[in-house]
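Most newcomers find our protein records easier to grasp once they have seen one. To make this concrete, we reproduce a full record directly below:

===
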Amino acid sequence: MNINATLFLQAVVFAILVWFTMKFVWPPITRALDERAQKIADGLAAADKARTELAAANQRVEQELASSRNETAARLADAERRAQQIIEDAKLRAADEASKIMAAAKADAEQQVVQAREALRDQVAVLAVKGAEQILRKEVNPAVHADLLSRLKTEL
C-alpha cells in the first residue's frame, strides 16, 4: 500500500469521525452542559432570592419582636397601674371599714357607759333608800315613795 493512499484514507476516516461526532455525539453533550449551566444559574438565582427573602423575613421578625416587646411593656405598665389602683381602692375600703368599726365601737362604748351609769344610779338609789331606812329605822315603801325615788335618781 501506498503511504499517500493510507494518509488519504485516514484523513477520510478522520473526517467521517469528526462529522459523526459533530452530528450525533456533540449535540447531546452540549445540551447536557447547557442544561447543567442553566440549573446552576437557576440554583444561584434561587439562592440569591432565598437570601433576600431571608433578610426580609429576618427584618419582619425583628419588627414583630420589637412591636411585641413594646406591647408587652405597655401591658406590664397597664397591669402595674391596675395593681396600684386596686391597692389604693383596697386601702380606701379598709379605711372606710375601719372608720365604721371605730364608730360602731364608740357607739357601743357610749351605750355601755350609759347602761353602767343607769345601773350605778339604780344601785346608789337602793343604797340611799337603805341608808335612809337605817337612819329612820323604819321601812320605806318604794311603791309609796316612787316619786321621791325617781327625783333622787335624776339628781344622782
Summary: The chain has two helices and no strands. The radius of gyration is 60 Å.
